[in-house]
Amino acid sequence: MFTKILIANRGEIACRVIATARKMGIATVAVYSDADKEARHVKLADEAVHIGAAPSRESYLLADKIIAAAKQTGAQAIHPGYGFLSENEAFAQRCEDEGIAFIGPKAHSIAAMGDKIASKKLANEAKVNTIPGYNDAISGPEQAVEIAKGIGYPVMIKASAGGGGKGLRVAYNDKEAFEGFASCQNEARNSFGDDRIFIEKFVQEPRHIEIQILGDSHGNVIYLNERECSIQRRHQKVIEEAPSPFISDATRKAMGEQAVALAKAVKYQSAGTVEFVVGKDQDFYFLEMNTRLQVEHPVTECITGLDLVEQMIRVAAGEKLAITQADVKRDGWAIECRINAEDPFRNFLPSTGRLVRFQPPEESMFQSDTSKKLGVRVDTGVYEGGEIPMYYDSMIAKLIVHGTDRNDAIAKMRAALNGFVIRGINSNIPFQAALLAHPKFVSGQFNTGFIAEHYSKGFAAEDVPHDDPDFLVALAAYMHRRYRARASGITGQLAGHEVKVGEQFVVVTLGQEGKNQHTEVSVTDFEMDGKTRSSAVSVNGKSYQISSEATLGQIRVQGQCNGMGFTAQVERGAGKNPLALRIQHNGTQIETMVLSPLGARLLALMPYKAPPDLSKFLLSPMPGLLVDVAVQPGQKVQAGEKLAVIEAMKMENILFAAQDGVVGKIVAGKGESLAVDQVILEFQ
Predict the structure, then answer these.
(1) Is the pLDDT assigned to residue 629 strictly greater than 80?
(2) Domain Lipoyl-binding: where (predicted)?
(3) How many angstroms separate the Cα of 316 from the Cα of each of 4, 30, 31, 214, 312?
(4) Are residues 173 and 298 in the same domain?
(5) Which end of the chain is more exposed for a tag (fewer CB within 10 A), N or C?
(6) Based on the domain organization, do 193 and 211 belong to the same domain?
(7) Residue 532 pLDDT
(8) Residues 154, 228: one domain?
């Protein structure tokens, strides 16, 4: 076994590999860029080596520097994580040539599966179901149309070297096939330097289901059940779960056996994933093979009890698999939510900056009576006070829960999301909460078009209605009463002017444009069992008995309401109003002021102050790097015309004119780092 390994990656996955290596007694070496010198993976590793500037092409993608770091530190093996060099056959071969073990498959396996056209041919030879299509490179759009007509619409046009949704179009007629081919070819040439295109049948109501496989250097290959990855936004996975709520045991077995056959055909060693597209009738077809560890591997670990990183290390060290197919378990249900640094209410624009607060829910993996590991797990590469840089992907953390069944897992995930405190940047937690509460998700009736269908116009606060809005009002009143009770106990108060706690309040829910909602509430304290302080809150004729041991001032509040546990977030002075209480629960957020009846009447008399008119300014919708300003002072622009380009988290975001106008003054310069809502230019 190795005594020291180097992790050629960063962030969450680097920390994940370090955790397993530490458990196995293996020393670790981290590599880092300028942007990551204070990163969590650097602090966790036994050693760390600086490898270059912040952009990944100048650091994490430099094979020479990573190999040099391994030699310098005496690391016997390199774990590539996912992304960066993890599926780079030349890097895997280079490691082998340098006498360093690559903790992943052999270069020939990566090469065979890395090309979509070549991998489909191999899959056919291994008798793996493949989608009807044309698997040779296509010469031009005219030929693409003829092929599409032969296969039958709709068809999917894909770049051979594509990934992450780039170089992919769906065509429903000849015109779309002609135009889609040209667009895919241009995207593929610009993104991957490879403009080969192929066409295949588009599966109706498709689900994205993948089989985790594990192989060793002794010819043994097993499959570790499946993962359901159909909840995707723009071809990027959002929620993953294991097992799938859709496929039957017979389909699972057939998919698993075909995945094993494909892995054996390329002499696969290490952990890998065979992805399938599954139709509404459970007809399944090979999509591609990922020759690396997947982001969503924890859900498989939860239901099988296996540590996939440990298995990868043991296989790379030459060990045989310690289990057979018959030993593979399928216990309980696991769900993973990807917590990303993006603003769902601003069309998921990237959100970078400092994590002013980062308090994940407490991890609680415990053994149940049936010896299943159940609870909450958080995989992350960040920490409170750390920075989310603009140079890499947007993932903050992976939140994983393991329940006895799917309903239990969904309930655990909703509670865990309620307790996940992130401040300083925006996250997609409200969107995740909305997805988990959606009836179609809860029933398991979804496919890869779920988000596009149900959130076609983007995401708004109205898309996550609370099942009991009065509970939020009651919680605001309960917490305000506790703050008043504490204030009443302060010594030295002026006689006759002491703080009175009171029982009658009005909760003012602050709305847009001064349209506030007033709700009369009564709060009565009483003792329960002679120990726990609790309050009875009356709202709109409903009674809420709320108790909590949460310390005043902490954001996460856990307690009981009418005998049921709850987790919510309560923050005083979080918004523009320092007197307001912000309440968050199940993805819904309200801003409230809890006042005396007289105070509420006086507030209603206050005039509404309209916000300033910002229509004459172009504001940055996100933090990022201003890479281009496409206009000049005095230039006339029309609605929809390109004004500027901002780069953040490996994505370019083009800003367009909302209306016709004339550019007045350019305020921000090319190459400047922008904050959210920073002025880029002014119109006359």
Answers:
(1) yes
(2) 609-684
(3) 13, 19, 20, 12, 6
(4) no
(5) C
(6) no
(7) 58
(8) no
Whether pLDDT at 373 is above 70: no
Clarify whether residues 179 and 242 are in a common domain. Answer: no
Query: Are 74 and 219 in a shared domain?
Result: no
The predicted-structure confidence for 379-423, as pLDDT tens digits, reads as follows 999 999 999 988 888 899 999 999 999 999 999 999 999 999 999
Residue 111 belongs to a domain? no
Report the predicted TM-score, pTM, of the whole model to 2 decimal places. Answer: 0.87
Burial class, 679, CB count within 10 angstroms (exposed 0-12 / middle 13-18 / buried 19+): middle
The structure tokens 């409170």 sit at 384
The answer to the question of residue 389 being in a domain is yes
What is the H or E stretch that residue 374 is in?
strand 373-380
Shared-domain flag, residues 475 and 406: no
**Do 226 and 189 share a structural domain?**
no
**Span 490-505, mean pLDDT?**
89
Residue 513 has pLDDT above 80, yes or no: no
Express as a percent the part of the chain with pLDDT over 70.
97
- Catalytic member of 87, 200, 210, 288: 288
In terms of Cα–Cα distance, which of 401, 219, 421, 212 is closest to 297? Answer: 212
Neighbour-count burial for 142-157, b at 16+ CB within 10 Å, e otherwise:
eebbebbeebeebbbb
Question: What is the residue range of 45's domain?
Answer: 4-103
Q: Please give the DSSP secondary-structure letter assigned to residue 130.
A: B
pLDDT tens-digit profile of 50-61?
999 999 999 999
Q: Is the peptide bond before 243 cis (omega within 30 degrees of 0)?
A: yes
- Is 371 found in the same domain as 270? yes
Question: The tokens of 182 are what?
Answer: 């040209």
682 is known as an active-site residue: no
In whole angstroms, what is the distance from residue 591 CA to residue 583 CA?
A: 7
Number of domain units in the chain: 5
Give the pairing of strands 27-33 and 4-7: parallel
pLDDT for the residue numbered 665: 93
